[in-house]
Amino acid sequence: MADMLDSDMAKPLLETDRGNSVRTLGACSGETVGILGTGDFARSLATRLLCSGFKVVVGSREPKRRAGTFPPEAELTFQEDAVKRAQVVFVALFREHYPSLSGLSEAMAGKILVDVSNNLEVEVNRESNAEYLASLFPQSAVVKGFNVVSAWALQSGSRDGNKQVLICSDCPDARSHIAGIARSMGFIPVDMGGLCSAREIENLPHRLLPFWKVPVLLAVGLFLFFYLYNFVRSVLHPYLMENKNKFYKIPVELVNVTLPCVSYVLLSLVYLPGVLAAFYQLRRGTKYRPFPDWLDQWMLHRKQIGLVSFFCASLHALYSLCLPMRRSARYTLINEAVKQVKANLSSAWVEEEVWRMEIYVSFGIMALGALSLLAVTSLPSISNSMNWREFSFIQCQLGFVALVIGTLHTLTFGWRRAFDGNHYKFHLPPTFTLTLLVPFVIILGKIILLLPCVNRRLMMIRRGWERGCSVRLTNVNLTTDLPEISSPV
Ligand SMILES: Cc1cc2nc3c(=O)[nH]c(=O)nc-3n(C[C@H](O)[C@H](O)[C@H](O)COP(=O)(O)OP(=O)(O)OC[C@H]3O[C@@H](n4cnc5c(N)ncnc54)[C@H](O)[C@@H]3O)c2cc1C
Ligand SMILES: NC(=O)c1ccc[n+]([C@@H]2O[C@H](COP(=O)([O-])OP(=O)(O)OC[C@H]3O[C@@H](n4cnc5c(N)ncnc54)[C@H](OP(=O)(O)O)[C@@H]3O)[C@@H](O)[C@H]2O)c1
Ligand code: HEM
């Protein structure tokens, strides 16, 4: 404990308080805070509070038994005594044990009770834990908070993970007071309003990457499809038709043909909904009618789909760089050299092949570079430093450029193979031809949308014009974002 007090954990991460209603560090420091319960959370909380300058009194059913488990600076006593000595009491018990506190009603009257509890499952109970606590102690001000912080995060001084602590209460003063304590402990309090938000706050720790499920499943589905397709073409076909063993391709080559296909198709799925949305708006002649639910959902998942695409493209780049260092590649090279010597050929240089590869690798690198920029700007710390226009420029324009360069990379890689019957195995076309379909539709769609007559109408719609409504747009510079919509005439 002494070590901890000396370390940087002893210093709250945020010392200043710029808010008006929130208590400052100075105002909170030195205050006695009560904690009911002596479990993991109570222990971490006590340690963090002590490090932040508070006095801590812990209430237990058996204070003597728990004495050794807390820092010596924390005072362990019976529950009632702890409640009587503090104005703020953290209830670090599970919900099912709340009724065991009923004998403390009188001592708890007028105090601020902080409910830190979580449930094992989402929405198991009719009312939130905090509302339940409030119903048991109607004379106390119940505040929900700190449940989104783990005991570990409390101990490590909130440096790991999210520093935000969501707080809600029907008593604004109590809410501000607890927000002040959270700030003094180095957390960032987020005011969530009344106690009716407690259910939402209690559900938060159960959330596990909700927007990632669909994109990841999509990527896995595409991976399985392309992997199987490539396996049939590149391994099964030579084995069955030419009696050649190409199973060595399974770990690297097949993966390196599959990954870029997944990445490229996902990238095109990021930009397809924007085109579909534009055509919807053009057909309906308004932007005020909501999109179909599937399109809305699709648009909401684009960030995650794009990041999964970037991930696959990065792996593809790494795999590609490793291709020449494999033993199979070396043996193939040596065998080719021996064949060349036997055939008395002095040079195997094929000018067209050299140029093709130089160009497609260069396009690949450029596409990955553009995608990396998109990925970097999607980090909250970077996107927060950009205005809407800059962010949208990078995401829409540069993203589309990445798709176009990726298409050039794929086309130069495929070259004439799409038209060469020898590359159709079991009548299956080369894999890259399948991936080109959606990007071609997008590029064609974008070209149509850029036609002046179409583009003008789309811009008008996006500025509020509606077909059949007499809204007149005046002085509109359609290349800027400042709408000037006159009142209906
Ligand atoms: C590596 C990577 C990272 C990415 N990171 C992010 C990210 O951090 N955040 C993010 O949002 N996307 C991200 N994306 C996804 C993608 O870049 C963006 O969604 C991008 O804005 C799509 O551009 P768009 O031109 O197709 O569509 P949009 O810009 O969405 O749409 C084009 C036009 O449609 C209109 N429009 C769009 N939605 C609606 C609507 N609901 N109602 C009415 N009109 C509408 C707008 O007027 C807009 O001008 C990422 C993609 C990749 C590949
Ligand atoms: N652990 C975390 O990371 C974490 C994170 C966020 C929120 N929380 C919440 O914090 C609360 C406590 O969690 P925890 O991990 O510290 O739990 P815990 O280790 O099980 O401790 C709970 C404490 O409750 C008391 N208790 C146990 N049985 C009881 C009973 N039958 N009647 C009355 N009191 C009883 C005990 O204290 P005494 O024996 O001293 O009375 C015990 O130490 C929970 O609501 C949890 O959801 C925990
Ligand atoms: C540093 C960046 C990149 C490099 C070095 C690179 C290199 C390569 C190589 C060597 C191949 C041939 C693979 C093989 O024959 O086994 C290839 C194919 C391909 N690449 Fe890339 N690439 C890069 C980035 C990208 C990106 C960003 C995309 C798409 C978003 C992409 C999409 C494709 C596609 C679709 C194929 C065709 C796969 C097939 O059908 O066989 N690549 N690339």
Automatic annotation (TrEMBL):
List, for all copies, the residue spans of the domain called Pyrroline-5-carboxylate reductase catalytic N-terminal: 32-119
Pfam families referenced in this protein's UniProt entry, alphabetically: F420_oxidored, Ferric_reduct
Where it sits in the cell: the answer is: Endosome membrane
* Family annotation (Gene3D superfamilies): NAD(P)-binding Rossmann-like Domain
List the transmembrane segments: 214-232, 257-280, 305-326, 359-379, 432-454
Q: Which cofactor does it need?
A: FAD; heme b
Positions in coiled-coil regions: none
Work out whether the entry's keyword set contains Ribonucleoprotein.
no
How is this protein annotated for GO cellular component? endosome membrane; plasma membrane
All residue ranges annotated as the Ferric oxidoreductase domain in the record: 261-404
Regarding protein family, the annotation reads: Belongs to the STEAP family.
Q: What is this protein called?
A: Metalloreductase STEAP3
Q: What is the lineage of its organism?
A: Eukaryota, Metazoa, Chordata, Craniata, Vertebrata
